[in-house]
Amino acid sequence: MGNNERLKDILVDELSFDVIKDGGYSKKSFESYTIILKVTNHSNAEIDFKLRVRYTSILFGLMVDDFQYKDSENMTYVMYSTYKINQKSFGILRIRFDEITEVCDGDRMELEISERTKLLLIRNKGEWYVLEKQTKALDFSRYPEIENLIEHFEAIEDRMGITIQNFCVRDDNEGTLYLDFEIFATRGDYYKNSFCIHAVIYDKGNNIVKMAHDFTGNDGFKGYGKFCGIFHNFDFPISEIGLIRIYPA
After folding, report:
1. How far is residue 159 from each of residues 16, 184, 235, measured CA to CA in Å?
2. Which of 198, 143, 214, 152 is nearest to 172 (CA)?
3. For residues 93 and 37, what is the distance between their CA atoms, to the nearest angstrom?
4. pLDDT digit string, tens, across residues 29-39
5. Number of Cβ atoms within 10 Å of the Cβ of 6
6. Which is nearest to 61 in space by CA: 99, 92, 32?
7. d(CA 44, CA 244)
8. d(CA 17, CA 39)
9. Judging by DSSP bridges, how do beta strands 195-203 and 177-185 pair with one another?
C-alpha cells in the first residue's frame, strides 16, 4: 500500500475510527453485510459528530449506509443521524449494507465526518487504508475579551506545585469553542500529586453552560503540559459568557 496510512492511525478532530469487523453476511439468516466501526474520542470533552458513509464494492457497485448505533455503556441499538461520544470513551457503529453479500480487497469507502472531513479508504489484505484525506480549512476567531474573564486559583495551584498560564479562547465559526492554556511545575515535588484540571464556562447569570476536564497522573505530567478544552456544538452566544473558571483538583 505504499505510504498510505491505516484508518485506525488517523485522527480527525480528536476522533479515531477503526474497522474492527467487516463482514457478517449470512445467507441462511438473510443478514445484511455489516461493518463494525469503533469510534474513539481522545479529547477531554464530549463530542457530537455526523457521519456519512458511501461504500463502493467491486462486485455490487455504490452503496450508501444504513446505520445502527450501539452505545458502549448500555449496549442498546438506536438509529441516529448525529452521534455522541463521551470524553475519553468510545462508541460502536454498525454500518449495514443490505445488497452486499461479499467483501473484497479493492473495495472502497468514503467517510464524511461532520461535513468537514472526507476520508477515502481502500481495503487491502483485510485492512482499511486511507487513500486521501480532504479537510475544509477552518476560520478561527480569537476572543481576548473572553480571556479576561478567566478565573483560576493560584493558591490551589501553589499547593499542588503547578501554575496555569497563557490562556487562549477561540472558535472555528462552525460551533466549536476551544480553550487552551499551559501548565508548568513550580516545584520539584510536583510528581507526588496526580491532579485533574477542570474548566467550567458560566453565563452572565452564573449558570453553568459547559464543562470539561483532563486527568494528569503521576506518569503523565513531566513538569509541563498543555490543556485543550474542546466544546462541540457550542450554540451559546460567546458574548454572553460571564466567567470561565479553571482549577486543579
Report:
1. 37, 13, 36
2. 143
3. 5
4. 445 678 889 99
5. 15
6. 99
7. 16
8. 5
9. unpaired
The 10 Å CB-count burial string (b at 16+, else e) for 42-60 is ebbbbbebebebebbbeeb
Nine-digit cell at 3?
505510504
CA–CA distance, 247 with 249 (Å, rounded to integer): 7
Overall size of the chain counted in residues: 249
pLDDT digits over 125-173, tens only?
999 999 999 987 767 788 889 999 999 999 999 988 889 999 999 887 7
Contact 163, 186 (CB under 8 A): yes
Assigned C-alpha cell, 128: 482499511
Against a cut of 0.70, is the pTM above it? no
- Check: CB of residue 123 under 8 Å from CB of residue 105: yes
In our burial notation (b when 16+ CB lie closer than 10 A, e otherwise), range 206-236 reads eeebbebbbebeeeebeeebebebbbbebee
Dihedral sign of CA atoms 61, 67, 73, 75 in order: negative
Amino acid at 239: S
